Amino acid sequence: MTLESTLGDAAIEQNLEQFLLVLSVSLSVATISRIFAWFRKIPYTLLLVIAGLILSIVNVRLVNLSPELILEIFLPPLLFEAAWNIRWRNLRRDLAPVTLFAVVGVIISIGGIAIAINQLAGIPLPIALLVGASLSATDPVSVIALFRELGASKRLTMLMEGESLFNDGVAVVAFSLLVGIPLGTAEFSMSTTLATFFVFVGIGIGVGSLIGFGISFLTQRFDLPLVEQSLTLVSAYGTYLITEELGGSGVISVVTVGIILGNFGSRIGMNPRTRLIVSEFWDFLAFFVNSIVFLLIGDQIDFSSLANNLDLIAVTIAAVLLTRAIAIYGLAAISNWVAKSDIGWRDQTVLWWGGLRGSVSIAIALSVPVILPDRQDIIDTVFGVVLFTLLVQGLSTQFLLSKLNLVGDQPLRQQYSEANARRVALNRVLHALSDPSRYPGIDSEFFRYQQGLVKGQLNGIEDEMAKLQREHPQLRELNVEQMREELLDIEADTYAEFIRAGRLNNQLSPLLQEVLIEADEKLLE
Fold first, then answer.
1. Among 251, 262, 296, 487, which one is most buried in terms of CB atoms within 10 A?
2. In the chain, what are the helix, strand and coil shares in percent, each to the nearest 5?
3. What are the pLDDT digits (tens) for 269-321?
4. Rounded distance, CA 156 to CA 153, Å?
5. Do 361 and 137 meet the contact criterion of CB atoms below 8 Å apart?
6. 67-273+301-403 — its CATH code?
7. Per-residue DSSP letter, 217
8. Is the separation of the CB atoms in 401 and 350 below 8 Å?
9. Where are the domains of the chain?
């Protein structure tokens, strides 16, 4: 065995040990957060940061990735999962404020942060612009999870999630345009920068649309859940790499392909079971990638280096909060005036305070070229701000929601959904018991006895659901949502069945989805 192969095997073994350590720590934190009631009050991602901080204190370093691989490994699955789960019909209603927050808000954030730390902390403007670009991407993973757990309004969740999804892309594009300035490979010019920006975005949207619709139509031709699941994974990473090679924005292309596959491809080309399998796969992948990133946030922090930059971090935190307030309150006012968005001050306050920085900001900061002399200052500043937003803003968001009376009825909706699932299941059991021929050799008296037991359970559940509906009329919306989802599934499955059987050659987009959207818009008028 040669020396090179021995060293290669040792490196592989070390990387595997690091991977297993990350997995073990992530699962341990997840288990602790579910077992002990006190830990359930803390968002899971914040627990991961705390665990990473503890590992950092005892000098345990989990992983070491080259800056060039950070964006390519972490961003595609995080962005695709968020885009896959976002509902276009809900996003379309608030497209105006989301676009304002994601585009104009990023510009305000970059400019405001850069000017503040340039004037108050003496950081060179090119470096200050990179810090601003890194911190302009919001990443409210823990806040969104908290919204869903507490039952905050769907609209508030959509505004927060939609803004985060799109401003990630804008922030990465801005960073790509600005990173060459301190390296001396590019000069800032407003006209050139805008032209390059539109080229980046245009190529990203074009490639993402082409791949997204192509895979959507391809999955109509077969019903193979594992293959379709694999295609989504290939599309996430493949779209990113192809777009980057073509000179476009890989982030924008991944967001585009995720939205198309999640809202169009999964409807026309996947049956409900496959769609569930794919969704669960991406939930796990996003959980795992987030686990690595949030552990890295805590694990990679160098406290001595942070201590040397406390003044810079403090100025940057103040700049982040101020520019966020200007962007949210100012742009919301414009959207309310022009697009009649009607975003209330309470929602605006939560959007301001809940605009955490996290995995995307860390990934951007770690991707700064090693040859840049001020790279460590950028990383320290971004890590310090991210740590503040997660541990201070993240832990206080629940208190803010309660004070603003924005906590919803999610526990009640969960109770009703569980009762409805039991009702459907027992009805199917009762239907099976109505046909004794399915179970030959069993006495008919036993069937009648079992039917009586099931009917008794079913009556009790139906009484419980009726009582919940009388006391909480808003629960009827759940029945409407579930009915609409079932109708859309029936329509999409029918088209896919006709295509697989060769009875239909032309691809058909879902008609019912547009009809339901138009009906919702008429109700809102």
1. 251
2. 80, 0, 20
3. 787 778 888 988 998 888 777 777 777 666 666 777 788 888 999 999 999 99
4. 5
5. yes
6. 1.20.1530.20
7. H
8. yes
9. 67-273+301-403, 410-524
